[in-house]
Prior knowledge:
Elements lengths: L2 H28 L3 E8 L2 E9 L5 E4 L9 E5 L5 E10 L4 E6 L8 E2 L10 E6 L7 E18 L2 E11 L11 E3 L4 E11 L2 E6 L2 H13 L5 E2 L2 E7 L2 H7 L3 E8 L4 H5 L6 E5 L2 E2 L3 H5 L11 E7 L2 E7 L2 E2 L3
Amino acid sequence: MDTEHTAPERAEAAALDAYSQVVTTVAARVLPSVAALSVRTARGAGAGSAVTVGTDGLLLTSAHVVQGARDGVATFGDGTEARFRVVGADPLSDLAVLRVDETTVPPVELGDADGLRIGQLVVAVGNPMGLAGSVTAGVVSGLGRSLPARDGRVTRLIEDVIQTDAALNPGNSGGALADSAGRVIGVNTAVAGYGLGLAVPINSTTRQIIDDLTTDGRVRRAWLGVAGVPVPLPPEVTARTGQRRGLRVVEVVPGSPAGTAGIYLGDVILSAGGRPIGDGQGLQRLMLGPAIGSRLPVTVLRKGAFVDVVAVPTELGR
């Protein structure tokens, strides 16, 4: 027997078996918790997917799937149907929370996308093109992507978006992106092109958004009244802080929390709330409900000196 050729073949077969085992295990764990959504609005009929995230009938989906709808029908993997109502939707994160009155469907386990690595195996579960219970697998192709989202006149970047080569098609939006342990670490939200899929991450920021939608039906966002651009930091500042970039202030709204706190044009924001700030998205991450009316310590670099100020963000739109 030619072992020189058969040994690699056996190794390849074992690897394929291990890969298949992971995918089938994740599919068996997540599939029962994913529903196909059917909605009807003034614009016509629509479809998508949703993930069961609570024992009390809570489902998580993409905001654009239920845009303009108050309710609809969720069909689960076992064939049962249930009407759902939209509890709250947040277009600026492309997340929405739904509730069905009765369900025996087990909730998924939510993971933390902040621990993902490029090349890591992920499994997408959803209902593309009306094909219920479809499973695709791939790897994390990229991390830290940004996806523009609009809510009326407000435009915001959904940050830390996950890029995967797991095949996603219309109808997958709102479905689950799971890691090899079957934990849902993303909500599939868009197809940017063939072989390219994006998912909103599940992390501490989106968990707060989900909690706000569940409790209040909306997401309250804080407003600081400052705009900036990323800039490299001087070597001596990098050596002291460990940061390579800061956020140079290019606009301060008169009378805003930033202006009242004493943040000026030309200042470079180094940290806020004890967290390093290297770009505008890093600052936006802090501007959720709990920040409203709270003291927010901000450290800026001003003419080579470190200056500490305290801002009190107000509610956006109020």
